[in-house]
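Appendix B. Raw example, untouched.
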Amino acid sequence: MRLFSRLYRRPPPLAPELADRLRSWQALGAEDDRAPLEDTRFVLVDVETSGLDPRRDRLIAIGAVALRRGRLDVGRGFEVVLREEGASADEAVLIHGIAPGERERGEPAPEALLSFLEYAGRSALVAFHAPFDRAVLERAASENLGVRIPNPWLDVAWLAPALNPRVGLDRAGLDPWLERFGLRPHARHRALADALVTGELFLVLLAQASAAGVRDLAGLARIARLRERAAQEGGGVPGA
């Protein structure tokens, strides 16, 4: 019973202003996954966490940048650090570089997550190793806002080898794919910087997909799923 209550506990009530904002986000309609790729708004996402277990480790930061009509909206990118009282200098700081003081000055989790949901709208969310980002964000949204995130997700880790089957990077992580296309991250393991460079890679993949006759989000998702299924049947997953 204790485990059940921990998994399904309700978040504390939201302040009226936040509750109104959340209702407005919930009222948004789903975007058409059959719309032409050039008319589809994508949101590239990256998260920083206290560890690698999405079921247990804490969400520390969210970075996102929108992409539409072949352009990343860099000037209006989104990044937020979640407030963590008494934050410690744990080992993960060596990876994400977010010092305890920055976390103590961060945004309260409900406000941070709601701001991200408002930025994302109902657009397709795109990430490298999307299941990790999705699980972390879903758990945080449930615990702090009492909602699930209904947006479709697209995993660049499967889309890249699906569109480049002969380059020998079927189970590679993000860095080998960046090197393959001559892309250089502005910084690694900061949420917004990782979202931006993933967006640059995604732009390359969108051009390849269009050249291959893929016309919409549904088509992109289909070829990524097929590649994932084939890899799982072969006993492999992409690298970190």
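End of appendix B.
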